[in-house]
Automatic annotation (TrEMBL):
Protein name: Vitamin B12 import ATP-binding protein BtuD
PROSITE patterns: ABC_TRANSPORTER_1, ABC_TRANSPORTER_2
Keywords: ATP-binding, Nucleotide-binding, Transport
ABC transporter domain ranges (all copies): 2-255
Keyword Nucleotide-binding: yes
One GO molecular-function entry: ATP binding
Organism: Paenibacillus allorhizosphaerae
InterPro entries registered for this protein in UniProt: AAA+_ATPase, ABC_transporter-like_ATP-bd, ABC_transporter-like_CS, ABC_transporter_ATP-binding
Residue ranges that the Swiss-Prot or TrEMBL entry lists as coiled coil: none
Amino acid sequence: MIEVNHLHKSFRMPSKDKSRWKRLKAWATGREPAKDAVRDISFTITKGEFVGYIGPNGAGKSTTIKMLTGILHPTSGEVLIDGLSPHKERRKVVRRLGVVFGQRSQLWWDLPVRDSFDILAAMYRTDEQHKKRMLAELDDLLTLHEFMDTPVRKLSLGQRMRADLAAAMLHEPDILFLDEPTIGLDVVAKRNIRKLLASVNREFGKTVLLTTHDMDDIEELCSRVMVINHGALAYDGTTQELRERIGLPTILRVTFRESVAVPDNAQHGFSVGDGNGGTELTVHFNRHEMQAMEVLRRLEQFGAVVDMHMEEPDFEDVIHKVY
Ligand SMILES: Nc1ncnc2c1ncn2[C@@H]1O[C@H](COP(=O)(O)OP(=O)(O)OP(=O)(O)O)[C@@H](O)[C@H]1O
């Protein structure tokens, strides 16, 4: 179980004063300006939950995760992992945690995957038999044998993510922190990783906290989502309720062979945006109510369509809408 109570983190920022003396004085007296990266966050995650932790760049996600793992000390407030404080009892806590960073691997770049696992097993003092049993279980789940003897630098991104996931689970932690595990993957690899993450949660019973900028990750995997913005928790609830709250329209940009004039009519099922009267028209529609093909079919009554381009609402707009 993860308990977070009134968590706060502020960073002291170097003074911008031009005078070196004043900058030194600000540093020595602790009067440098402070930046609040995480502001009074509280939540509880119970065993077996799969929770999304989302927010725009700079919102405070990594800072929170770093406090949960004991890398950073909170300025105030408290984190408890199974009743233990990560920064006071770091050794005990890290045994219960597995962490995957999509942007950087915790494996040794030039070594075969197998050697990285050996090093990690030694670091966690996992005995040989236990390691073999765990690797066999993880191989069943993640098909590791395909690349066990390949140096990490030669793995595809999807394979590297599978190897990193195995590395994070080798010491059998109950809790996984996944920081953008699908970043950079193509559609097929993303789908595979999502399937694996779902099994890790359902079959292995791991509690998962997932940070991502990919709304599909959230929609497919998480029963609960927390949104953080400017360091504060803006939403904590089910994905279903979040989806309903979002309700932002999808944008369709359509190019017609000739200029069109489309009357803005609620009966269309879409609303007309920029470009009416010209050849490039923007329309907005709700994907939950109507499919893009149906919108196109209706638009074709007004002229021949030669090209189209669909855009989902911007992630940050979605988050703003959540407030
Ligand atoms: N060591 C640090 N010193 C000063 N400021 C920091 C430090 N680490 C983070 N910050 C600031 O705290 C705020 C929150 O940063 P954080 O990395 O937690 O955001 P994030 O939500 O993880 O963003 P991203 O999605 O871009 O990874 C940002 O304004 C960042 O500049």
